[in-house]
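Can anyone check this?
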Amino acid sequence: MGYSVVFIQEFEADYDAILGYLSVQSGSPQAAIALMDSFDAAVELLADNPFINAVSLKPQLAAHECRTHHVGSYVIVYTVRDEMVVFVGMFHQRQLFEGIVARRG
């Protein structure tokens, strides 16, 4: 991996909540495992190519220079700072997450 990877606490909570929902509430542990595999591949891709996605055009995300990357039905929100890829949040693609990310700064 080229850039170091940082997961903020809120990102980790988002990720855990999604995996919990998939494996317990929806009754599909296989979907949770598949998402974990896809997520791991995305982290590796973004660590090697952090500028593969442009800064978002959505004003609340652009103000923080956030970029988005899709993994299945989910969106990873991240920023690139110095030599780090900072993972800010992970949300379902139908979720209105721009305000949440803006509050996280």
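Reply from J.R.: I decoded it. Residues 26 and 86 are 29 Å apart (CA to CA).
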